[in-house]
Amino acid sequence: MDGTNGSDLPPVKEETFCKYVLYYEMNNSRVRIWDLIILIPNALFVLFLVLRFNKAQLKLRATSSPIFLTFYTLVWGNVIISLIRCAVSMTVNAAMPVGGLIDKILWVTVRFFLLATEMSVVIFGLAFGHMDSRSSIRYVLLATSLISLAFTVTQGTLEIIMPNDMFHIDTRDYDLFGHGGMLFWFTSSLVFAVIYFIILLLPWIPLREYLALPTKLSFYLYVLLLALLDATQAVGAGLLTWGDAPSGLCVVDVTTWLYFSLYTPLVYHTFLSEFFSVSQPSIMFSYKAQMDEPMDDDQVSLPHQQSFSSLKTDSDYIYQSNSVYDSTLFEVGGTTPMNPVYSASLQSPDSIASGQSIDIGLPTPGYQTQNVLST
Q1: 86 touches 42 (CB < 8 A)
Q2: Is 179 left (phi over 0), alpha (psi -120 to 50) or beta?
Q3: Which terminus has fewer CB within 10 Å in the chain: N or C?
Q4: Are 2 and 158 within 8 A, CB to CB?
Q5: Which three-class secondary structure state does DSSP give residue 155?
Q6: pLDDT score at 221
Q7: How does pLDDT run across 330-372, given as a tens digit for each residue?
Q8: Region label for 169, one of left (φ > 0), alpha (ψ between -120 and 50) or beta (otherwise)
Q9: Which residues lie below 8 Å from residue 112, measured CB to CB, with a gap of 6+?
Q10: What is the per-residue burial (b if ≥16 Cβ within 10 Å, else e) of 312-343?
């Protein structure tokens, strides 16, 4: 071995359950049980997304905010790359140098996507409660991608150059993915845990006067879960490095499975499920076009063209009220101005067919309009 990467303890015995589960192959088929138990929840989540794809597409076309499409794309990207990693890991021979290298690169790639999404959510919530333009979203994604890239390149380099003895399999002479070594995993997990706990304290410190903090409990529950997960990861990595190695490995296994299997569904549930639900959602982000930003066609016309009968169920919920798009998760108060032409386009096709109409008054400055419903 080239190095221990921070651990002074003897390696965990291979017959220990929490290590055995990481490399055991079902009937010598290269299908490791560890990859399988991560694949199953991701595959089920993909099935869930596929079944709801048409409704999600309809809702995305009905909103002027690009942030929902951004998060929906990130969710799809995360789960697809996770499935690819599991599938490839089940086909390559990790005992071969090339197979082991491919497996580690795929692990780091998945971590890159998950970490970029993780940071984007926090930044959107704390610094960009009112999304001013699509360029703001692009800048945030670029910044989080660069930070995530630096993190994962460091992790991958440590993983390849200094593999951790704790994850070496003597009987097969190869190294499992060790998260860049337990010292790196301990330090990074501890840093992330501290950051999330600080976010949880923001509503109770004077700094809150200068920030447009989120107002919904769901955001803080999301942050709390990640804070607890990272803190537990730090404990497990610390035990592996300086304490009870077998217990520490079990803790690391559990937190790793939770993060790589359930984090993406957590993002969807917290930030997208209410928006995609049939009932009227409470919008999580707001968006307004800048003066120098052209308005897209889908902001001034009916988002889709289908028969009235085919839209009778979902469109009634989507288009029935403009107030659906007025409140956000991250704004303290007030509403987001809406183009009156786009406001008119939100009328349900079914209400048109039934003889209802919307009379739009002349707009006042700031797009303040008054809608008068008449039948």
Answers
A1: yes
A2: left
A3: C
A4: no
A5: helix
A6: 94
A7: 444 434 444 444 444 444 444 444 444 434 343 444 444 444 3
A8: beta
A9: 148, 149, 151, 152
A10: eebbebbbeebebbbbbbbbeeeebbbbbebb
How is the chain split among helix, strand and coil, in percent rounded to 5?
65, 5, 30
Q: How many CB atoms lie within 10 A of CB 23?
A: 18
With contact defined as beta carbons under 8 Å apart, do 298 and 346 qualify? no
Question: Residue 333 carries which DSSP code?
Answer: S
- Six-digit token string for 157: 């380099």
367: alpha, beta or left? (left if phi > 0; alpha if psi -120 to 50):
left
372 strand-pairing partners: 359
Name which of 165, 174, 239 is nearest 13 in CA terms: 165
Contact 122, 86 (CB under 8 A): no
User: Exposed, middle or buried, 14 (CB in 10 Å: 0-12/13-18/19+)?
Assistant: middle
* Phi, psi at 358, each rounded to 5°: -115, 125
The residue that leads in pLDDT, 365 or 228, is: 228
CA distance 6 to 181: 7
Check if the beta carbon of residue 130 is closer than 8 Å to that of residue 331.
yes
Nearest-angstrom CA–CA distance, 66 and 116: 18
Dig out the tokens for 102 from the structure.
């491919």
pLDDT tens-digit series, residues 187-210 = 999 999 999 999 999 889 887 777
What average pLDDT does the chain have? 76
Contact between 371 and 341 under an 8 Å Cβ cutoff? The reply is: no
This prediction's pTM: 0.72
Are the C-beta atoms of residues 41 and 275 closer than 8 Å to each other?
Answer: no
Half-sphere exposure of 191 (CA within 13 A, CB side): 7
- The CB density around residue 269, as the number of other CB atoms within 10 Å, is 13
Q: How far does CA 296 lie from the centroid of its chain?
A: 26
At 145 the pLDDT is 96
CA-nearest of 218, 281, 229, 235 to 258 is 229
